[in-house]
Amino acid sequence: HEVGIWLAQHLFCTQMKDNLPCGKCNNCQRIEKKEHPDVLVIEPEGQTIKVDQIRRLQTEFSRSGYESRKKVFLIKEAEKMNSSAANSLLKFLEEPPGDFLAVLETDAVGRILPTIQSRCQVLHFQELSKEALIHRL
């Protein structure tokens, strides 16, 4: 399960249980299907994330949330932003509009502009071994 989707569900879930999103309520389902109006998921178009995709994000996030004050954007494979897209995102992060959560997912943090990294909280994840998963279950 993707961290960005889970975080969005955590923010918008209407039936949290033990401080975890239920995965079944209307909001959780729409987020999973990428249909929630206050959650925008950007993925590479072809080999890169293009500046027009980031501009669309900026346009969406300049407006108030449709169902909430909060908004979430998730950029998958963020290392694939071309230089124009990365610079456009940087400007957006420097002057953020309103209440939002930005999640940039990457397995190559070194390919993200240092100026973008400096405006983000970097969280490192690694896969659990099969033994660790079994132990946790």
From TrEMBL:
| Biological process according to GO | DNA-templated DNA replication
- Read off the InterPro entries from this record: DNA_Rep/Repair_Clamp_Loader, P-loop_NTPase
This protein's superkingdom? Bacteria
Q: State the name under which the record lists this protein.
A: DNA polymerase III subunit delta
